[in-house]
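A reminder before we start the practical. When you read a complex entry, don't treat the lines as separate problems. The point of joint prediction is that each chain is placed relative to the others, so the output describes one connected object in space. Small molecules and nucleic acid strands, if listed, are placed in the same frame. In the example below there are two entries. Take a minute to note the order of the lines before looking further.
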Amino acid sequence: MITFDHISKNFPGVRALDNVSFSVERGEVHGLVGENGAGKSTLIKILSGIITDYEGRIFIDGQAVSFRSPHHAQSLGIATIFQELTMISELPVFENVFLGREPVLWGGIVDRNSMREKSQKVLRYLDSNVDPDTLVGRLSIANQQIVEICKALVLNAKVIVMDEPTSSLTEHEIERLFSLIQRLKDAEITVIYVSHKLEEIFRICDTITVLRDGKCIGSVKRETSHPGEIIRMMVGRSMNERFPPRERKQGEKLLEVRGLSRKGELEDVSFSLYRGEIVGFAGLIGAGRTELARALCGATCPHTGEIQVGQKIFCGFSHPREALQAGISYLPEDRKGEGLVSCLTVRENLVLAILREISSHLWLNNRAESKIVDRFVKNLQIKIYHPDQVVETLSGGNQQKVVISKLLATQSEIFIFDEPTRGVDVGAKYEIYKIMNDLTQEGKGLIFISSELPEILGISDRIYCMKGGRLVKEFYCEEATPESIMYVLTGGK
Amino acid sequence: MKNILTSQTKIIIALIVIDAVIMVFLTLLSPTFLTYGNIVSLLTRMSELGVLAVAVTLTFISGGFDLSIGAVMAFSGMIAGYSTLLGLPLFFSILFALLGGAVIGLANALLVVELRLQPFVVTLATMTMVRSIVYGFMRGKTITAFPDSLLSLGDKYVLGIPLLFIILVLCAILAFMLLKKTILGRYIFALGGNERTAFLSGVPVRTMKYFVYVLSGLLSALAGLLLVIRIRAAIPDAGLNAPLEVITAVVIGGTSIKGGKGSLLGSLLGVFAMFLLINGFSLLGLNPFWSVIILGTVLIVVVGQEGIMVPFIALLHRKVRS
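Here is the predicted structure of the whole assembly.
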């Protein structure tokens, strides 16, 4: 049905897909699994015509195709239902179903009646009681998904790609979705099901393909496999040489968090951090790790709970400034959106958080600024040709080093690194791990959030697993294995 | 090369060249252009819009927007006028006029910061309201009862340079120091460049917004007083077209509406170019209103340079590939 032939795709600094080849049979439910960043979404974007410049070829029924646009991919029978649904909430269901392909009567008038009738027919076939005249915005996520499926069927899609379809559904809605997928399968429609929830994959998929680091690790039949094998395929890789050696020494307690809660984000989170320690926070997207970081760095204020830094007890911070003064600084995961002011220079970015400390009253102190900038540029080997270079023009790794320098300059005791190695190349990753090690050697404490299990396992001393805003399990580095953590995160006990 | 000359420097160089070219042309075409009297009147007339351009540059860099500047001009003129009519000493007239501008700036900031409304919408509303207040009180009349001690400032010269223009230059220098030499300036750039990052880095984002809008109100009120001095009266229509003219000049000068980028020098050169064109057109007996068309073209060419090139580049790429 669909064959991927040596598909590769490079983004600046990252090889998102590396010679991926596999086939999807007609009428099967094909599971696509992999960790965050394994290349699943890039592959889907290629298949749905969003990314059009890639290497390799895609065959549909033996014919080579290249998608020019999402519209073109749809015409070739491939409909994609993204995690973030892509409908217009202000329009009724039937207009969304036919969006961009409205049937017209003579004179270019849109044939609303036939649109409404056809939508009604397909919805009934899907066993749904959604009224085609309702505005999409009024429907639940589950029903919006059904409308998307309806849209796919109206387009005569032969393949429906579903990206994490259950991420915001209730148990009951998931059951309904599964029976719907069964029905699609009976109608000879191929479903590509992307998820990292293994229980779901094992319930409905016939074949499972595993991606890791942009490579296709292999495809297996469900009957002949078991979750353990898939987990090994997802995480298994050699871990030597990727991480700098680390000498562990635990000092006094630096931070203790007790019963931190914030409605809809965090629930009763308690943990502690000692000097010289790197504590990893593992979890899937939406597990509440970033929300926790935000509450600790003063970007949001927790509703209940307390944060003890050294001897001082705070019940949350009302501004990041207060957290900085308490000695907590935060490296955001979104480097461009929250870490840097892209249009300013390296120097201006680097001293932004310590301006008050190095200036005499309101007047900037250029000499002090230059001294600090020079020191960090040298220590962290940031590649720039001038401190007044606009930060936008640097590579991802160097930009990240500028943000890290900004944090280090605050001389905080506690650092929260949220996905510090995202979008930087392997060499820069190693350097960032080394910076983290050096910090702990100086007696600082590090909270390390990452979606990449290997790096969490590679440099953390302790690992907390988060799920649904709670801390569900704590591992010591010796007892943690990728399999055991993945097991906790994907729904096991 | 591209890295050495930032787009900002390019725009400023372009503006200096444009200004110089216009001046050369006008000198050749009109015998009266390069006379002391004409230049002095040109500089005097650009003072108030120049001060407004300083205000707009500051708000734009901070990522804000202030449409109420023109209305505040009229408002401050009115306050100064009524204060004089009430027999208050000159010092208090000026003080109240400036305070009036600051209060409107404060109102803008309150609405933008506390209610999280769009600056464009907020200042559009205050612009309309303040203008209505002025019309309501003045009922189309002008106030001319200003003391000579105030009006004579318009005839003062220092080293042959009109005092009003010197006030503009002082404002520009102070604003430049603020932007480039103080923490506040750095915060304004950071706030406009990326508010999220600024917030997470401990910048007092809310305070800075209050500061910028109040300062913008103050400067606009000052511009209103400069206008009173120049035309020797407070008029209800003062600054009616100011927002459009000043924003055009500031954008031509390379300040980004999106925030984080901007230069005071560019803004002032932009205002200067505008006045040169208007002056030139009237000297040559052309309708000065047409000069705005030239300015608009310059705006698109200078600022939109890269934008204009995009389709061509895309076309080239496609040709190369196929």
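Discuss with your neighbour: The beta strands of chain B are 157-158, 161-162. What might explain this?
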